[in-house]
Design goal:
alpha+beta; about 240 residues; about 25% strand; elongated
Length: about 240
């Protein structure tokens, strides 16, 4: 149905198109990921200014016609997150967060919690560059897995249900595995297991710390879960 669509959105990705236009990948609370064209945005006197860049949180009016590609007709900045653009680590963490959302969640899959989680992550990066560390990035990805329906099984062996001797992780089984079932996975240290459990239980702003070894193992567990169950590959998190 054609007509105007009013929505908030975070710009996940912005690509040049033609001589003066841009194609935008947007994440919205009501529609999930959508694509839109901003006509003439690269002209010097464009009414959109520079606000249709990645990581902007916007209030948009979009024209919805017969094409899957909507047209931006109005854009108002809710938050530009300017400080996260001042440093390499925060800019990189923001890019990886937006890329993870772009890859994990398809079009026409409304997920309001994902929109608010992404806005929360961008707000944390804006407030304090320390939130660009690897622990925060992995905590964000773990919470995305929950929203996507791929939360790893951490309380018991994902293969047999055993609650003791959980010494490995299997992406294909979707969680931790015991010593008897470890052949299909990789060794997971107790500290890495604890990090993943705590990261899911705590607010994103309070992501737990972890040793480099524990965080590497947690990152591998997240990556293998996504590859086996969402059939996509995330960009590696930044290790700073």
């Amino acid at each position: 149905m054609s007509g105007p669509l009013k929505t908030e959105a975070v710009v996940l990705r912005s690509m040049r198109f033609g001589e003066a236009d841009r194609i935008l990948h947007l994440y919205t609370p009501e529609r999930g990921r959508i694509s839109a064209i901003a006509k003439g945005v690269r002209k010097t006197r464009s009414r959109f200014g520079g606000r249709l860049e990645p990581f902007f949180r916007l209030r948009l009016v979009l024209h919805e016609g017969r094409s899957d590609l909507l047209t931006v007709t109005s854009a108002e900045t809710v938050s530009a997150f300017p400080r996260l653009r001042e440093g390499g680590p925060t800019l990189d963490a923001a890019a990886r967060a937006c890329d993870a959302v772009n890859r994990l969640f398809g079009e026409a899959e409304p997920q309001p919690p994902v929109f608010h989680l992404l806005c929360n992550e961008l707000g944390l990066l804006e407030a304090d560059a320390r939130h660009a560390d690897l622990a925060n990035q992995l905590a964000f990805r773990l919470k995305l897995l929950v929203a996507a329906g791929f939360a790893p099984q951490l309380a018991a062996c994902a293969a047999c249900g055993e609650r003791e001797h959980l010494v490995g992780f299997s992406g294909s089984d979707g969680g931790v595995v015991c010593g008897s079932c470890e052949a299909g996975g990789f060794p997971l240290a107790e500290e890495a297991h604890a990090f993943m459990t705590d990261a899911l239980a705590r607010p994103l702003a309070d992501a737990p710390a972890g040793s480099p070894r524990a965080l590497r193992q947690a990152e591998r567990a997240i990556a293998e879960t996504v590859e086996h169950h969402a059939h996509v590959r995330l960009r590696a998190a930044s290790h700073g």
